[in-house]
Design a protein that fits this description.
Shape: globular
Number of strands: 12
Strand content: 5-15%
Radius of gyration: 24 Å
Distance between the termini: 42 Å
Largest sheet: 8 strands, mixed
Helix content: 55-70%
């Protein structure tokens, strides 16, 4: 079982050199977000993640959360770690100052979030969902609801949940049946919700559930869904906690991974009906829920980055220590890291993790610009970029994490299949993240339908032109590594343009055919965007090398970018071929042939 050491040096490189922390620090309200502050926060967060949260990862996996007499007991040490988490102010990093938060930009908050996820994904899911509930209330809640709940959620003193899914309503939220009946200044909520992450626990005094439900006169479908705050404990006028609300955890799911995180089945209104409070206007609940869901989708993409980093660190350390056989070209028995294929696997893990991290942080910086830039035209420009890249960060990063964590097991050999090493846990834990907050297919449909076809590729083409300008800068540099990076990325861009144009044209005449290529298109765009960030990193590393700055780190950056260009970028061509030509075969068979 390996330790976790936050990759602070790489995080700072991406934040400062690729994502533009200096530019974010000029935005109104973010003036204190300087490089020295970022380094101090990341160093301290890395210490907390490595020393307090990470040691609980294996404990959570082995013990799991338990339901005892209707109460959920988290694994040993989780409650104490969460108290330290809140006391240290970590729950308030991204929350607004007006609500008791620290008001840090997303570009600084997201690397901290990555650390929590690498250290212990089960633990980190709790504050992530709390942040999502906070976002929804902050944007759409009444002043009264904000006064009662926001400060408690902002600090993490209370936690929050998302309650969408029901037994008959998974991704199809039009099928939601939970009812909300008006009663004075509140509503009586009745129904069942499943797959509620951290839906019940004893780590905080209260849990704030955000629940989708239907009013008696609601129209059918998604246009008839409203959003409600349903607290575990009612809150008195003076802010103290009152009676237990009519919401109960009736069971916990037995899962493939993330055992430390309780995934609850919640029953609302088994007695008189749970008391809930309407958020915003009636029948706009799904719209409001997407406020928290879009932030959550970027957060889940970061989970892919984070668990890939943890799997890579463990595989790298094992490969350095494990002595097995003579590597080709070696005279003596040595560590397996000397074997060419082990090095290939480690580089696949390392380069893809670096590419995912860079794209996620750059997207976080775009979010900050979209929220705070003083020019409304620029805000709209950055928001369009965020909208385009969010499904890519979520879908591509989580799918790539499946490969990276699987490679982590492979590097361990037979020992990777043994739970004792911990490599298998990363692979099991990672499996849910392609499903969380919308499957890869849902992300791909969003990318193709709303973010590409609807605007006829406008934002995508602007992105491609920006990437092409960066390719030209790489091509000017001397050396075989830069030639390979530039040639590979330019060819990938050419094929990406062709794919997008083909899918846009096809969608006008045959929607099923176009959308049969949606996932390959998403993966293609993710790989190309990752290659873009790796190329930018290589350019910057070359300049730093020429100045004699941190030679080993910057040389490794160039090698990683070159490896990505030669081993990963070519995959974009295969995805393009599937998107362009695979649809007919996908749709050809009658259902009975499956």
């Amino acid at each position: 079982m390996s330790n976790y050491t936050a990759p602070v040096r790489d995080m700072l490189f991406v934040m400062n050199e690729l994502a533009g922390l200096d530019a974010v620090g000029t935005l109104p309200g973010y003036e204190e977000a300087r490089a020295d502050l970022a380094e101090a926060i990341l160093e301290e967060a890395g210490r907390f993640a490595g020393e307090v949260i990470a040691p609980l990862n294996v404990i959570g996996d082995r013990e799991g959360s338990r339901l005892i007499d209707g109460k959920v007991v988290p694994p040993t040490g989780f409650a104490d770690a969460y108290r330290q988490f809140v006391d240290g102010g970590w729950g308030a990093v991204a929350s607004e100052i007006d609500h008791g938060g620290q008001g840090l930009p997303q570009l600084l908050a997201k690397p901290v979030t990555e650390m929590w996820n690498s250290a212990n994904l089960s633990f980190a899911l709790c504050p992530m969902l709390t942040q999502g509930a906070l976002e929804a209330l902050e944007h759409h809640g009444s002043d009264e609801l904000k006064a009662v709940y926001l400060s408690k959620l902002a600090t993490g003193e209370w936690t929050g949940t998302m309650n969408l899914t029901e037994p008959q309503a998974g991704s199809d939220l039009a099928a939601v049946r939970t009812k909300a009946v008006p009663e004075g200044d509140h509503y009586r909520i009745s129904g069942n919700k499943i797959f509620i992450t951290w839906g019940e626990h004893d780590m905080t005094d209260n849990i704030v559930h955000l629940v989708l439900a239907r009013l008696p006169d609601a129209p059918e479908g998604v246009k008839g869904i409203s959003l409600f705050v349903v607290p575990k404990y009612l809150v008195n006028a003076d802010g103290s906690l009152g009676l237990r609300n009519d919401v109960q955890c009736v069971s916990l799911e037995h899962k493939m991974g993330i055992h430390g995180s309780p995934t609850a089945v919640l029953a609302f209104g088994e007695k008189d009906g749970a008391i809930g409070y309407l958020v915003g206007e009636p029948n706009r609940g799904l719209e409001y829920m997407f406020t928290m869901m879009n932030h959550a989708r970027l957060g889940v993409g970061l989970e892919g980055v984070a668990i890939s980093e943890r799997a890579y660190q463990q595989a790298r350390d094992y490969a350095r220590d494990r002595v097995q056989g003579k590597a080709i070209g070696q005279r003596a028995v040595g560590a397996i890291i000397k074997h060419p294929d082990v090095r290939r696997m480690l580089m696949l893990m390392k380069s893809q993790t670096e590419a995912m991290r860079a794209l996620a942080y750059v997207t976080a910086a775009y979010m900050d610009q979209a929220a705070r830039h003083p020019d409304p035209v620029q805000r709209a420009y950055y928001q369009a970029r965020v909208d385009l890249l969010t499904p890519v960060v979520k879908g591509w990063s989580t799918e790539t994490a499946q490969e990276v964590t699987s490679l982590g097991v492979q590097v361990h050999g037979g020992m990777g299949f043994i739970e004792e090493t911990g490599a298998a846990q990363h692979m099991r834990d990672a499996r849910i993240i392609t499903i969380y907050e919308g499957t890869t297919g849902i992300q791909a449909n969003d990318l193709l339908g709303r973010k590409t076809v609807r605007e006829e590729g406008k934002t995508l083409r602007a992105l491609i032109e920006e990437i092409r300008a960066d390719v030209a800068r790489v091509a000017e540099l001397e050396g075989e590594a830069f030639r390979q990076i530039a040639v590979g990325l330019e060819e990938a861009l050419r094929v990406l343009e062709a794919t997008a144009s083909h899918l846009i044209a096809t969608a006008a005449n045959d929607m099923p055919l176009a959308f049969s290529g949606a996932v390959p298109y998403l993966m293609q765009l993710g790989i190309v965007c990752g290659g873009w960030q790796m190329a930018r990193a290589a350019c910057i590393a070359k300049a730093r090398l020429d100045a004699g700055d941190d030679v080993a780190f910057h040389q490794a950056k160039i090698v990683s970018a070159q490896f990505y260009a030669t081993h990963v970028l070519p995959r974009a061509q295969a995805h393009a071929h599937a998107a362009l030509h695979g649809g007919q075969a996908t749709l050809a068979l009658d259902e009975s042939a499956f």
